[in-house]
Design brief:
globular; 9 helices; disordered C terminus; 3-stranded antiparallel beta sheet; mainly alpha; 207 residues; two-stranded antiparallel ribbon
């Protein structure tokens, strides 16, 4: 019998601030990071600029921008709102314009994207571990905290022992769909883009 692999001490978390599922997972991932002292954390071009300065600034920016969109129904994808949110957390609002003006921030975002795609990744949230394994998810509506967060971390990282285990998926009931719609209401009201779902174009713009 082979021994189970050692528990990971670091993880890369790949996200898109516009994804409501990635935001939910990020709440859980922060809880696990703080409880276990994990290293790692991987927003788009503003995030790339902040990462060069300090990973803690990127973390604070994603936390604030994510809460603005997914909880408060604001629009961090609008430059004026992004500037305001940066100021709220004590950062220079000019970072927005600097990041957009600097083409290398685009290059960094593209490189992060390609790193996930080249390994077979296809969406966010994605966890990438030191041995190169990647998981999509966990996709969770109610992020656990405390001991429950650690139990989920143990369940997720247990998959590292089984590199040919590809998928376990729970069907969503009608009640689940209603809970998801209610939880994502701020996001759906704030978004200004078209969603593609199962080959159909779904428009969530407000009238």
């Amino acid at each position: 019998m082979t021994d189970a692999p050692a528990a990971p001490t670091s993880v890369e978390f790949h996200f898109d601030v516009m994804c409501p599922w990635a935001y939910k997972t990020s709440l859980w991932m922060r809880e696990v990071r703080d409880l276990l002292g994990l290293d790692g954390w991987s927003m788009m071009r503003i995030g790339a600029a902040l990462r060069r300065r300090d990973m803690a600034q990127l973390d604070a920016w994603y936390a604030r921008a994510g809460r603005a969109l997914h909880v408060e129904g604001h629009k961090p994808h609008e430059p004026a709102v992004a500037r305001h949110l940066l100021a709220e957390i004590g950062l220079d609002p000019a970072i927005v314009d600097e990041a957009i003006a600097d083409p290398t921030t685009h290059d960094e975002v593209r490189a992060d994207h390609e790193a996930v795609v080249s390994g077979g990744g296809f969406g966010v949230p994605t966890l990438r571990f030191g041995d190169g394994q990647m998981f999509y998810g966990p996709v969770v509506l109610d992020p656990p905290t405390g001991d429950a967060a650690l139990r989920l971390w143990s369940a997720v990282t247990a998959w590292l022992e089984f590199p040919q285990l590809y998928e376990i998926k729970r069907p969503k009931s009608a009640q689940d769909e209603r809970l998801i719609a209610e939880a994502f209401r701020p996001y759906l009201e704030a978004r200004d883009w078209v969603s593609i779902d199962r080959g159909k174009v779904v428009e969530f713009r407000k009238p």
